[in-house]
Amino acid sequence: MPKTVRWGLMSIGILLFSKASVWRAVAQEEAPVEQPPPSGVEDILSQILGFLYTIAHWLGQLVANLLQAIFPAFEVPPSIVDPIGLLGLVTILFAIAEFSKRAIWMLIGLGWLLIVIRIMIAAVQG
User: Fold this and answer.
1) How many CA atoms lie within 13 A of 31 on its CB side?
2) d(Cα 96, Cα 89) in Å, to the nearest integer?
């Protein structure tokens, strides 16, 4: 078999295979694909993120209403209510983290102080 005929047959075979693959993909897209129910972790994560988003949205609306009350002529665009709330929520979370960090270091320092006092008492009692 001449080389050109062999290449031609291979090209036709590749073309037909790719066409069949495309038709198979189209047929699969047309059929409704049922999504599996979310697993426990995905469901819990979705609920937590939804809860945080709701809190952020309420916080954004609270800030927008506060700005509206202070500056009656200024109208807060509804498109920035959610970003204001998310930024406010992150600020609150970081403030809590900073306070917790200080409180933890104070407890660690107190713990070391009590250990040093205990060692000193044990050394004096001999």
Assistant:
1) 8
2) 11
CB atoms within 10 A of CB 13: 10
Q: Which range of residues forms the domain containing residue 69?
A: 39-125
Tally of CB atoms within 10 A around 92 = 13
Determine if the pTM surpasses 0.85. Answer: no
User: What HEC string does 16-85 produce?
Assistant: HHHHHHHHHHHHHHHCCCCCCCCCHHHHHHHHHHHHHHHHHHHHHHHHHHHHHHHCCCCCCCHHHHHHHH
Q: Is residue 1 part of a domain?
A: no
Residue 87 resides in a domain: yes
| Contacts for 61 with CB less than 8 Å, ≥ 6 apart | 81, 85
Which amino acid is present at 16?
A: L
Instruction: Find the range with the poorest average confidence among 8-17, 48-57, 58-67.
Output: 8-17
91: in domain: yes
Total count of domains within the chain = 1
The answer to whether residue 86 is domain-embedded is yes
